[in-house]
């Protein structure tokens, strides 16, 4: 194992140690539960309110735990780095979020998450808790549109949580929360570009390689292969390259109003994210697509990977109202 310049104690306890830090720094947002890999918003459960649960592997901070907060996610199941939480963690998150009105589990399309959530839903039903799910599949690079069910869930999940959390806070019932969260992710498309790899501390070496001067278009959050590897492009061309597969699906026609979320992958300077966003904004203006709200920053990362993801969600009146609702979490604050 190569020597790593990291701020850690034990490479095998990175997740546990990080959870301690999050809880210590933000007691207003995080409360522990009986499960060491489940955190909840302190005032949850709220009787009569639909609970919102998500979960996923660590290493993507502020996703997933960073979206626990007021008017967003109520409880989160936390996995090992780049690994699904256990079925037991998902189940305990569902129990923590249940206020008697049912639980909406909103998560990404990965094999481990699918298996463990399904097991947890069955066990929750046996415990008298109704849980319904929405599976995010917004990554256009991971499968063609006619195989959309195979697509991965990536940073578009954040917009799904934003909409679902706002709907639950507004008093939607469980079916209503599920319907609008499904609409949010159906109206969302995402793609990423990677410029460098990353290192899981307990592994000690890069889990894939991108040569200097190259970029991988469509790379997944765990280094899953993208569409192709091409020479590094200036921000202007990179924006064009990433928008082309999103726009060609025809969802974002001229006159559309959209939310745009640009996220760094962990090592990209914020200044460069804004350079990139300016090019995205310019192209969308040229095509007559109106940006109603934009988010630029580190919203869904992959340890210290260099790169950027682009997510767009088409709005209607209902989605616009829910996106604009106030929220207070570590990863997103507005209103």
Largest sheet: 6 strands, mixed
Low-confidence stretches: none
Q: What is the average of the pLDDT values?
A: 96
Strand order of the largest sheet: 1-2-5-3-6-7
Over the alpha carbons, how many angstroms does the gyration radius reach?
19 Å
As a percent range, the share of strand residues is 15-25%
Query: Helical residue percent?
Result: 25-40%
Number of helices: 8
GO molecular function: phosphoenolpyruvate-glycerone phosphotransferase activity
Keywords: Kinase, Transferase
Protein name: Dihydroxyacetone kinase subunit DhaK
EC number: 2.7.1.121
Report on this structure.
- GO terms for molecular function: phosphoenolpyruvate-glycerone phosphotransferase activity.
- Its EC number is 2.7.1.121.
- It is a single chain.
- The protein is of the alpha/beta class and 335 residues long.
- Helix content is 31%, strand content 23%.
- It has 8 helices and 15 strands.
- It has helices spanning 14-25, 87-97, 111-126, 156-169, 174-186, 235-247, 270-286, 317-324; strands at 31-32, 38-40, 51-58, 69-70, 75-81, 103-108, 131-136, 188-194, 214-217, 228-231, 257-264, 290-297, 307-314, 327-329, 333-334.
- A 6-stranded mixed beta sheet has the order 1-2-5-3-6-7, with helices on both faces. The chain has a 6-stranded mixed beta sheet with strand order 10-9-8-13-11-12, sandwiched between helices. The protein has a 3-stranded antiparallel beta sheet with strand order 4-14-15, covered by helices on one side.
- Helix 7 (270-286) links the parallel strand 11 and strand 12.
- The radius of gyration is 19 Å and the shape is globular.
